[in-house]
């Protein structure tokens, strides 16, 4: 039968440093159980680091450093994006690496000197295709062969007017959500329909450096990575379709809305701020809990998860700052382990068996371990006998609130 496992949201532990990397920039918990990290070394003496034992030991990859700033996984392939149009790729969970190059896809649009600085800051997968968003005007590119070759998505529909000039802006974030690709630039938010190869710029919502984005179920959760005051913009903003947006509550003691690292695990939002601040919310931003342990004088760059921990890469420009590196916190201790969440106002009674999920009066959806909709949905009850064995999540939503949890299908 299906086993439903519950826990609590009471904080019991704090963040602790797993591994010191000077100028740490990114971290990824891979689907095969490894940890991959990068740094952003000004002298190009850094690179990519891999651990196969939960961070106990690390090995530096043998390849040239291109200041890798972002890690992404697609169907077991790991990508590390760098400057000069370079992307490192590993097909064996970080054991070996090879260098890819998307210069041919952008050289017609960038000057020679710009190519040296062109770099991808974000990647996403949609419909089995790999997308890369260039930060220096190269646009959003697409690859159908795991990064071997690249081509442009429609450029003219990406362009916006800035000071009377049509430009393709610098992209900070790229995510697949609701069957579309979402690109977040300095100025605007763009959505892409792969069926028509056309971009649409949202007219009801500006980006203004909305560079941290997480997709979870029906929800797209967005934050900004600059020190705007709370009276300028909301702490986080949430949408399902880009038309209707709502603002989350803000933690009581924040000084700015700067959230450079944002992620969701098992329905719990992780919002990390500079100088040692981490907040978690199990009710989509209605209330927040402060998680201790992160150090001052560091800047979180990302948050990634396996089934036991949340991990973050903490950056410091000072090479001798020993707090720079990979940090982690147990998911169970922040209410983001295998759990259920009580809905606001009353409990939504959820029953999980091997054949069905029942929640009277609620709309139910089922997601896989990656947060993707499995196509099992219904009102009051959803039959799940057709699900393959594995780990899944449910979301039950009613007027009284929302409940989510995790179950194992045997």
Description:
It contains 2 helices and 37 strands. It has 410 residues and is mostly beta strands. It folds into 2 domains: 11-334, Methylamine Dehydrogenase, Chain H (7 Propeller); 351-409, Sandwich (Immunoglobulin-like). Strands 1, 33, 34, 35, 36 and 37 form a 6-stranded antiparallel sheet that branches. Strands 2, 29, 30, 31 and 32 form a 5-stranded antiparallel sheet that branches. A hairpin with a 7-residue loop joins strand 5 (48-51) and strand 6 (59-60). The longest helix has 4 residues, at 103-106. It is globular.
Helices and strands in order, then pairings?
Layout: E1 3-4, E2 16-20, E3 24-29, E4 35-39, E5 48-51, E6 59-60, E7 70-74, E8 77-81, E9 86-90, E10 98-101, H1 103-106, H2 112-115, E11 120-126, E12 129-134, E13 140-143, E14 151-152, E15 160-162, E16 165-167, E17 171-177, E18 180-185, E19 188-193, E20 198-206, E21 212-216, E22 219-223, E23 237-239, E24 245-247, E25 261-265, E26 268-273, E27 277-281, E28 289-290, E29 299-300, E30 304-305, E31 309-315, E32 325-330, E33 351-352, E34 356-368, E35 373-383, E36 390-398, E37 401-409
Antiparallel strand pairs: 1-37, 2-32, 3-4, 4-5, 5-6, 7-8, 8-9, 9-10, 11-12, 12-13, 13-14, 15-16, 17-18, 18-19, 19-20, 21-22, 22-23, 23-24, 25-26, 26-27, 27-28, 29-31, 30-31, 31-32, 33-34, 34-35, 34-36, 36-37
């Amino acid at each position: 039968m299906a086993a439903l496992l519950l826990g609590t949201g009471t904080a019991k532990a704090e963040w602790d440093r797993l591994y010191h990397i000077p100028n740490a920039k990114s971290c990824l918990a891979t689907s095969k159980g490894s940890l991959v990290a990068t740094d952003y070394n000004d002298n190009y003496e850094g690179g990519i680091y891999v651990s196969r034992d939960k961070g106990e030991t690390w090995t530096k990859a043998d390849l040239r450093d291109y200041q890798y700033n972002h890690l992404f996984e697609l169907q077991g392939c790991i990508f590390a994006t760098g400057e000069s149009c370079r992307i490192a790729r590993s097909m064996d969970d970080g054991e070996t690496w090879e260098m890819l190059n998307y210069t041919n896809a952008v050289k017609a649009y960038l000057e020679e000197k710009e190519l040296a600085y062109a770099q991808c800051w974000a990647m996403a997968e949609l419909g089995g295709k790999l997308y890369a968003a260039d930060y220096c005007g190269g646009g959003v590119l697409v690859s159908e062969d795991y990064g071997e070759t690249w081509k442009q998505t429609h450029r003219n529909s990406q362009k916006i007017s800035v000071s009377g000039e049509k430009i393709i802006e610098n992209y900070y974030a790229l995510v697949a959500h609701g069957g579309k690709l979402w690109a977040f630039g300095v100025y605007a938010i763009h959505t892409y329909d792969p069926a028509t190869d056309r971009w649409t710029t949202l007219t009801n919502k500006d980006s203004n450096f909305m560079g941290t984005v997480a997709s979870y179920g029906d929800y797209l959760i967005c934050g900004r990575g600059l020190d705007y005051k709370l009276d300028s913009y909301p702490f986080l903003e949430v949408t399902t379709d880009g038309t209707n947006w709502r603002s989350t509550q803000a933690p009581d003691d924040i000084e700015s809305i700067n959230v450079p690292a944002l992620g969701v695990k098992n329905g719990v939002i992780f919002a990390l701020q500079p100088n040692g601040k981490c907040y978690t919310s199990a009710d989509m931003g209605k209330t927040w809990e402060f998680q201790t342990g992160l150090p001052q004088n560091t800047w979180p760059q990302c948050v990634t998860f396996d089934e036991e921990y949340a991990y973050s890469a903490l950056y410091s420009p000072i090479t001798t700052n020993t707090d720079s590196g990979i940090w982690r916190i147990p998911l169970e201790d922040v209410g983001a382990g295998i759990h259920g969440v009580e809905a606001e106002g009353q409990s939504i009674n959820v029953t999980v068996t091997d054949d069905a999920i029942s929640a009277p009066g609620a709309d139910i959806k089922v997601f896989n371990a990656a947060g993707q909709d499995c196509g099992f949905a219904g009102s009051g009850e959803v039959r799940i006998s057709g699900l393959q064995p594995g780990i899944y999540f449910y979301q039950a939503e009613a007027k009284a609130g929302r409940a989510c949890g995790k179950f194992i299908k045997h």
